[in-house]
């Protein structure tokens, strides 16, 4: 008797906002051959674990507790290598800033950078076997055009460039990208080098690099613009500003996430507000990016989305409609098609693929 083949599956860690002790970090499993999704909570009792991340070997899982307090929010670590269910906290530390919303891991995986949105600062942690030691806190200052959202600095993300030499920090409140030099092993691993102003009122949120590292994509939350920069040796220059909405669109905006497909051929960005869409772009012969289409995300408030490792599917997480929706991706054209496959989950706001 032949041994039955194991069904192909994709797994994602799901960051959420929580309302009870029974909620926390979820594990999503997608079986494309069965057109099915499953969802289980693997770390309960964590308040607002809105961002989840692992290192390359996926030994440890890191998350934030996106809250405010005397010592800021928290970062927490879990051992992941031997288990995918009922995770136990390995270590936790305060982030020295309110509402931590983003985590970045250094290329050597010895440091973690935490962006504190309301605190307007960046915290650096040294990591040893999942144990966390805060070694540096950098405070931003500034404000910008949008008085209701940009009254002070709001650090929204930190992104290592492909060389690992530089870190780019998006400050939504001051409309600036900060460039820091990263040097592992120093007492203060980050040193400030330059501030790059964005267009007033943009609100830079998340960044992604092209596969060849020669372009940088910045999603501007408040204007819902995907800005394309040429990039090299730590220097950037704006090339294009691509709207994440049609000319006819009228309503609230709120761009959220940008992703480059695993094959490097297409770029996707999500827009919340009244749009609830995912926009797809491809590079044309002139070297510029052109719109493929603005797609309905299939739910309300697509705060985050991600692609499977092979690029065949895109999954969109919707905070307001409490659901995760699956799209099939055409690798040649970059086009998306809603598969009709979805699953309900409590306020899913981040998706991180794991093996």
Automatic annotation (TrEMBL):
The Swiss-Prot or TrEMBL record annotates one GO molecular function as: 6-phosphogluconolactonase activity
* Entry annotated with the keyword Phosphoprotein: no
Taxonomy-wise, where does this protein's organism fall, top ranks first? Answer: Bacteria, Pseudomonadati, Bacteroidota, Cytophagia, Cytophagales
Extract the Gene3D superfamilies matched here: YVTN repeat-like/Quinoprotein amine dehydrogenase
Query: Could you say which protein family the record assigns here?
Result: Belongs to the cycloisomerase 2 family.
| Coiled-coil ranges per UniProt | none
Q: Which of UniProt's keywords are assigned here? A: Carbohydrate metabolism, Glucose metabolism
State if Isomerase is listed as a keyword.
no
Q: Which PANTHER family match?
A: 6-PHOSPHOGLUCONOLACTONASE, 6-PHOSPHOGLUCONOLACTONASE-RELATED
This protein is called Lactonase, 7-bladed beta-propeller
Cited Pfam families = Lactonase (PF10282)
Q: Name one GO biological process term.
A: glucose metabolic process
Q: Which InterPro entries match?
A: Cycloisomerase_2 (IPR050282), Haem_d1_sf (IPR011048), Lactonase_7-beta_prop (IPR019405), WD40/YVTN_repeat-like_dom_sf (IPR015943)
């Amino acid at each position: 008797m032949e041994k039955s083949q194991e069904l192909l599956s994709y797994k994602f860690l799901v960051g959420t906002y929580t309302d009870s002790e029974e909620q926390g970090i979820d594990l999503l499993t997608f079986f494309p051959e069965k057109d099915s999704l499953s969802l289980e909570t693997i770390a309960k009792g964590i308040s607002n674990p809105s961002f989840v991340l692992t290192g390359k070997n996926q030994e440890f899982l890191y998350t934030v507790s996106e809250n405010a307090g005397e010592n800021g929010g928290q970062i927490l670590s879990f051992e992941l290598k031997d288990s995918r269910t009922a995770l136990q906290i390995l270590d936790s530390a305060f982030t020295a800033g309110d509402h931590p919303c983003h985590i970045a891991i250094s290329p050597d995986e010895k440091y973690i950078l935490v962006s504190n949105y309301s605190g307007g600062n960046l915290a650096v942690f040294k990591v040893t076997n999942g144990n966390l030691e805060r070694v540096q806190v950098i405070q931003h200052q500034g404000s910008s055009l949008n008085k209701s959202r940009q009254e002070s600095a709001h650090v929204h993300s930190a992104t290592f460039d492909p060389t690992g030499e530089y870190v780019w920090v998006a400050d939504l409140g001051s409309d600036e990208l900060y460039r820091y030099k990263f040097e592992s092993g120093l007492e203060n691993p980050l040193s400030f080098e330059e501030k790059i102003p964005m267009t007033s009122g943009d609100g830079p949120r998340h960044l992604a690099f092209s596969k060849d590292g020669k372009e940088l994509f910045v999603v501007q939350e408040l204007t819902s613009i995907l800005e394309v920069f040429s990039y090299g040796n730590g220097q950037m220059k704006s090339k294009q500003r691509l709207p994440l909405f049609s000319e006819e669109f009228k309503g609230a905006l709120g761009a959220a996430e940008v992703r480059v497909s695993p094959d490097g051929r297409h770029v996707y960005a999500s827009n919340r507000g009244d749009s609830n869409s995912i926009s797809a772009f491809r590079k044309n012969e002139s070297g510029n990016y052109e719109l493929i289409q603005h797609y309905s995300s299939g739910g309300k408030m697509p705060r985050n989305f991600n692609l499977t490792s092979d690029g065949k599917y895109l999954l969109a997480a919707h905070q307001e409609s409490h659901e995760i929706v699956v799209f099939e991706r055409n690798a040649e054209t970059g086009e998306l098609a809603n598969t009709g496959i979805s699953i309900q989950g409590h306020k899913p706001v981040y998706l991180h693929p794991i093996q």
